[in-house]
Automatic annotation (TrEMBL):
Record GO terms (molecular function): DNA binding; zinc ion binding
TM ranges: none
Primary localization class, coarse: nucleus
Higher taxonomy: Eukaryota, Metazoa, Ecdysozoa, Arthropoda, Hexapoda
Organism annotation: Cryptolaemus montrouzieri
Name the UniProt record assigns to this protein: C2H2-type domain-containing protein
This protein's UniProt keywords: DNA-binding, Metal-binding, Nucleus, Repeat, Zinc, Zinc-finger
Cellular compartments per GO CC: nucleus
C-alpha cells in the first residue's frame, strides 16, 4: 500500500512538474511573442508610414489616429498628408508625371 502510494505520489509530482513547465513555457512564450510579432508588421497604413500587426489596429489607427492633424495637403487633388515628405512624394509620383 505504501509502495503504491509512493508511485502515485511520484506520478502526481511528475504531472505537477509538467503543468508548471507548461505554465513557465507559456509565460516565456507570451513575453517573447510581441517582439517576434513586432518584426513582422504586415498592415501598413496607406496614408502615413505606420504599420501594425493586426488589421484591427490599423483600422483603429486610421479612424482615431491617422486622420488627425494632417497638415500637408496636395495642391492638386487636395489629399491630406501628415508629413510634408509624403505630400511631396505623392505629388511627385502622382501628378508630376502628368505635367
Ligand atoms: Zn496612418
Ligand atoms: Zn494629389
Amino acid at each position: 500500500m505504501v509502495l503504491i502510494f509512493g508511485k502515485l505520489k511520484r506520478r502526481l509530482n511528475f504531472a505537477v512538474t509538467n503543468v508548471i513547465n507548461a505554465i513557465n513555457f507559456s509565460i516565456l512564450y507570451d513575453r517573447t511573442r510581441p517582439e517576434i510579432v513586432d518584426e513582422e508588421k504586415e498592415f501598413h497604413c496607406d496614408q502615413c508610414d505606420k504599420s501594425y500587426t493586426t488589421i484591427n489596429s490599423l483600422r483603429s489607427h486610421k479612424v482615431k489616429d491617422c486622420g488627425r492633424d494632417k497638415s500637408y495637403k496636395c495642391t492638386v487633388c487636395l489629399k491630406s498628408f501628415r508629413r510634408k515628405a509624403h505630400a511631396k512624394s505623392h505629388f511627385d509620383n502622382i501628378h508630376r508625371k502628368h505635367m
